């Protein structure tokens, strides 16, 4: 399947599915898995990642590729698939929050929630 237009590069929408067995056709707008955006090399990385149970150190041992190179590859795949990693707001410092807000990574509402949680944690300690 082509997730991106071969002419302009924009994301294509799947609008028709057809059964080859009984010639039934269904039309509509269907979502495409983020995995559809990956090429064969990316899929091999994902399979290795899953087989090593997400352990980059194990992948480093198996492949001989450095941990930080593997981590960079994982970040590129997340971007390619349009996914953002989960982040723990509890481990972020105030400076990180403001930097992320400045870069547009998080919204003002997200920043306020993170700072509020951090403030509540400081009161308990």
Automatic annotation (TrEMBL):
One Pfam match: DUF2089
Domain of life: Bacteria
Limits of the DUF2089 domain: 5-36, 38-83
Protein name per Swiss-Prot or TrEMBL: DUF2089 domain-containing protein
Natural source organism: Thermosipho affectus
Lineage: Bacteria, Thermotogati, Thermotogota, Thermotogae, Thermotogales
């Amino acid at each position: 399947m082509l997730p991106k237009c071969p002419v302009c590069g924009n994301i294509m929408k799947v609008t028709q599915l057809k059964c080859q067995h009984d010639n039934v056709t269904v039309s509509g707008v269907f979502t495409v898995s983020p995995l559809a955006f990956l090429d064969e090399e990316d899929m091999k990385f994902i399979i290795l990642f899953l087989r090593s149970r997400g352990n980059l150190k194990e992948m480093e041992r198996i492949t001989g590729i450095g941990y930080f190179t593997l981590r960079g590859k994982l970040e590129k795949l997340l971007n390619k698939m349009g996914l953002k990693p989960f982040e723990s707001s509890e481990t972020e410092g105030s400076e990180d929050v403001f930097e992320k807000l400045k870069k547009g990574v998080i919204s003002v509402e997200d920043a306020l929630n993170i700072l509020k949680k951090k403030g509540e944690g400081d009161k308990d300690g």
